[in-house]
Amino acid sequence: MKEIPGPRPVDISELVRAQDRLSFIYVERCVVHRSDNAITATDERGTVHIPAATLGALLLGPGSTVSHQAMVLMAESGSTAVWIGERGVRYYAHGRGLAESTRLLEAQAAAVTNQRERLRVARAMYEMRFPDEDISTASMQQLRGREGARVRRLYREHAERTGVTWSKRDYDKADFDSSSEINQALSAATACLYGITHAVIIALGCSPGLGFVHTGHSRSFVFDIADLYKAEIAIPIAFDVVREQPEDIGSATRHAVRDAVKSGHILARCAKDVRQLLIPGDTEGADWNVVHLWDGGNRTVDAGTNYHVDVPW
């Protein structure tokens, strides 16, 4: 048999777990290609090699040209590719998930379609942000009110801490420059956080669209999970960056978010948080290459078995 040309596909067992990967790498005005099992980014300064199997998300900025082979490798490696438009944020694609088990996806679908379970998960998300408060009986309306007050307080506290002028969150996706510097920094930090959490969600085999607090959007669950870390990562970094008055707010914000995500072990925490939200007490992690057949109710049987019996039809 004639051998198929080109590098062999990456075996999923060779890939690095989502929580152990690099958070993200941002590139712009370059050509992204593939060299064996590495992604390459080439511009007038030279070529940089990026190990695809250890990458969480590749953020493609303005002027990026990507080859077919680079995208094949990204998909095989379970890495997320995010295109970010000029002066705006758009999400267009993601690679294959690292998990071949649907345990988390099924748990997510079951919880989001059951009102009691959905409220349990939503409360658990808010509880991560209010660790010293009892919210076990709070309604969604009460939780939203507490969160709104908390975020307003955070904006005010960081404005006072850094001396950055703050009025309100105001931005236009179609016109990045029309917003204030602090709103530009907040938008850049939030975009990075969305890319990172989306990469983890996809890698774990969950659906980015089945949210518990957010709903009706293809990235509702991404917004849910990203909100767990905004107060720790996006908001303080945005105010710190604007205080320093860098020449390029977007670039400085991305670098600061990358460093904070690494030092705060956000990828590992994100993977753990998603598992605990969907399957409390779960310690099994993802199963590899497990396929069953539904046998009615909550029962399953092994696949790959001939179940034929001689019975009259």
Short note summarizing the structure:
The chain is 42% helix and 13% strand. The protein is of the alpha/beta class and 313 residues long.
Please provide a written account of the structure.
The chain is of the alpha/beta class and 313 residues long. It has eight helices and nine strands. The strands form three sheets. A four-stranded mixed sheet has the order 4-3-2-6. Strands 1-5-7 form a three-stranded parallel sheet, sandwiched between helices. Strands 8-9 form a two-stranded antiparallel sheet. A hairpin with a 2-residue loop joins strand 2 (31-35) and strand 3. The model has no long low-confidence stretch (mean pLDDT 83).
Number of helices: 8
For the sheet with most strands, the description reads: 4 strands, mixed
Mean of the pLDDT scores?
83
Element pattern in H and E: EEEEEEHEHHHHHHHEE
Question: How much is the radius of gyration in Å?
Answer: 22 Å
Strand content: 5-15%
Low-confidence stretches: none
The geometry reads as flat
Helix content percent band? 40-55%
Q: Trace the largest sheet across and list its strands.
A: 4-3-2-6
